[in-house]
Specification:
Elements: E1 2-6, E2 8-9, H1 11-28, E3 33-37, H2 49-57, E4 62-64, H3 75-78, E5 85-86, E6 100-105, E7 108-116, H4 128-139, E8 146-152, H5 156-166, E9 170-176, E10 186-188, E11 191-194, E12 199-202, H6 211-218, E13 233-243, E14 248-257
The protein binds fe (ii) ion.
Length: 259
């Protein structure tokens, strides 16, 4: 089983590069399942039903979210019909929204989960460690062979600790949120790990955001609207291959395509 995990799709540039590359990437790497983080897909904050439909149409199988999961108010009313979306279990605004998906591939059954980190996350989340214990309590009835976690957070250390603590039950911890792809991908005691898968979004930008606006916001501390940069995009993700019989990851490789 080969899973392509696509890093935070950010704004129109990010959506466009996914749309233009995904078909050929799936072919080139014989990808079986595509998971993408879509929490920045709608102009940097959240996702709309229209964008969700387009990403699924373009070949994404499952969409994980993050701290901006509830930024678009329409999301709540559409969640029933969005059967490929995974909302972060420990987001302070989550009530009974879907927080996991059971995925069957050949003899493998795994549970895809989205968890928010807590460090430097502006109090959008609750304790990720307690949260994931609760998720496993709720999902163990489905008897998954393992869990696959999109851990959406700012702190690389927190993500590594999460992986070390849960690696017996989790076969992949893929970090998202910082938009900067890290070079620490590894299989560690049977768990595929990377601190951050990176971003799909405008290359000339500050993590996807307009450069001038970022300067105004960071240096002059002026209030700005959140403007997403435009132009040619970078594509970032990781390819994780599993041994179908042993049901463990055998490789994790970064993909980064710059304009
Ligand atoms: Fe985020």
């Amino acid at each position: 089983m080969k899973i392509l995990f696509i890093g935070d799709i950010t704004g129109k540039s990010g959506r466009d590069i996914v749309s233009s590359l995904l078909y050929s990437l799936k072919k080139e790497y014989s990808v079986d399942i595509v998971i993408a983080n879509g929490e920045n897909a709608a102009h940097g904050k959240g996702i709309t039903i229209k964008i969700y439909d387009k990403l699924i149409h373009d070949g994404v199988d499952y969409i994980t979210m993050g701290n901006h999961a509830y930024s678009k108010s329409e999301i709540k009313e559409h969640l029933d019909g969005m059967d490929r979306i995974v909302m972060p279990y420990n987001h302070i605004k989550r009530t009974d929204d879907p927080f996991f998906r059971i995925i069957d591939f050949k003899d493998i059954r795994f549970c895809l989960v989205n968890i928010l980190g807590e460090a430097f996350m502006n109090e959008t989340s609750m304790d990720p460690f307690k949260a994931f214990e609760k998720v496993m309590n709720k999902c163990d009835d489905y008897e998954p062979d393992f869990y696959f976690v999109d851990l959406h957070g700012e702190s690389t250390a927190e993500k590594r600790v999460f992986m070390e603590y849960f690696k017996d039950k989790v076969r992949a911890v893929i970090g998202t949120h910082t938009h900067v792809q890290t070079a620490d991908e590894a299989i560690i005691d049977g768990c595929a790990f990377i601190s951050d898968a990176g971003m799909c979004g405008a290359y000339d930008s500050v993590i996807g955001r307009d450069i001038n606006e970022s300067i105004t916001s960071v240096i002059l501390k002026e209030k700005t609207r959140y403007t997403i940069a435009e132009g040619p995009a970078i594509f970032c993700g990781v390819l994780i291959e599993f041994d179908d019989k042993l049901k463990i990851p055998v490789s994790i490789n970064r993909i980064q395509i710059r304009p």
